[in-house]
Design a protein that fits this description.
By secondary structure, the chain is α+β, with helices and mostly antiparallel strands. The chain contains 11 helices and 14 strands. The strands form 3 sheets. Strands 8-9-10-11-12-7-13 form a 7-stranded mixed sheet. Strands 1-2-3-4 form a 4-stranded antiparallel sheet, with no helix packed on it. A 3-stranded antiparallel sheet has the order 5-14-6. It is globular.
Length: 304
């Protein structure tokens, strides 16, 4: 089976496969698949019987090589077909399988062809856009208080500017990302590796932001980039928020920025997918504090 590396210039070629795409996990965003290509994560594409098959080659170990669910408008491959696709592509596992797929075909039918494993660290958090844009209700009172403090300290003194992200701002965004990591104490080898991948992905996203039909905003505080985030399309009702970062040293900035992302980047979407917590307790706590309306589970299927 012939694979082709998934590159920005392929976006228009593969975009039709994602028309009316229904999977709610963030990995099924075509722009996201493209920008996360790096020395550890190598996405490749192959067209199989009018379906797009994405094969991800790991730069660390072959055991992590996998495909995701094949993508094609109006198609839903049954477990037997899915097993054949994986075997034809010489791949022993399918990752980021949605709960919708598991339920629609039935766990017992799937277990005839695969071993099934839930991957809770890749379970996505999905929020109602209106909830994050308005922050109404008692559950968001602490968020509103922090935003009010930030606005009194910075907005009312004209110290804050929100800008659309364009290609010429890539260097500033990367400088911010490095400072953000210093602030967070990202000094272990694994975290540095994660940051290196994220920097490459952010550079890819900003450098191709128009071509990939992504959009983003950044916040300057005292003329210094202090927060940025980028959004992409997932389904007709869900957009994905990538790279949402803000300096923790500026009290209330994150809460203010998160609200502005919901207001400015997701007007046409009912829901916002804010990706997974990667099994990190601190990140899980932060995501839960915004009260997701859905938790989209991810499964791994290993061929029998």
């Amino acid at each position: 089976m012939t694979y082709k590396p998934l590159l920005p210039e392929d976006y228009n070629l593969y975009k039709p496969f994602f028309r009316n795409q229904r999977f709610r996990l963030c990995v099924y965003s075509l722009p996201s698949l493209i920008v996360w290509s790096n020395h550890i994560y190598h996405p490749h594409a192959s067209i199989w019987n009018d379906s797009l098959v994405i094969f991800v080659q790991s730069g660390t170990t072959e055991e992590k090589n996998h495909i995701i669910l094949p993508i094609a408008p109006g198609k839903n491959h049954n477990p037997k077909e899915l097993h054949r696709i994986a075997a034809d592509h010489q791949c022993s596992q399918i990752r980021f399988v949605t709960e919708e797929y598991i339920q629609s075909h039935g766990p017992e039918q799937i277990k005839l062809f695969f071993y099934v494993y839930e991957e809770s660290e890749f379970e996505d958090y999905i929020y109602r856009t209106e909830d994050l844009a308005e922050l109404k209700g008692n559950q968001y009172s602490k968020k509103r208080n922090l935003i009010n403090q930030f606005e009194r300290e910075y907005l009312k003194h004209d110290r804050v500017v929100i800008e659309t992200i364009t290609r010429d701002k890539a260097e500033e965004c990367i400088e911010f990302l490095e400072k953000w990591c210093e602030e967070r104490g990202c000094d272990d080898i694994e975290r540095r590796e994660d940051l290196a991948c994220e920097k490459i992905a952010a550079l890819n996203a900003i450098g191709n932001i128009d071509h990939l039909e992504m959009n983003g905003i950044l916040v300057r505080v005292d003329n210094i980039v202090s927060a940025f985030g980028i959004a992409s399309h997932l389904t007709d009702s869900i957009g994905v928020l990538h790279f949402e970062k803000a300096f923790a040293s500026l009290k209330g900035l994150y809460q203010y920025f998160d609200r502005e992302c919901a207001r400015q980047l997701f007007q046409k979407y009912t829901y916002i997918n804010k990706e997974s917590d990667m099994g990190l307790p601190g990140l899980a706590k932060a995501k839960k504090s915004y009260y997701p309306v859905m938790r989209e589970k991810a499964y791994k299927l290993v061929l029998k």
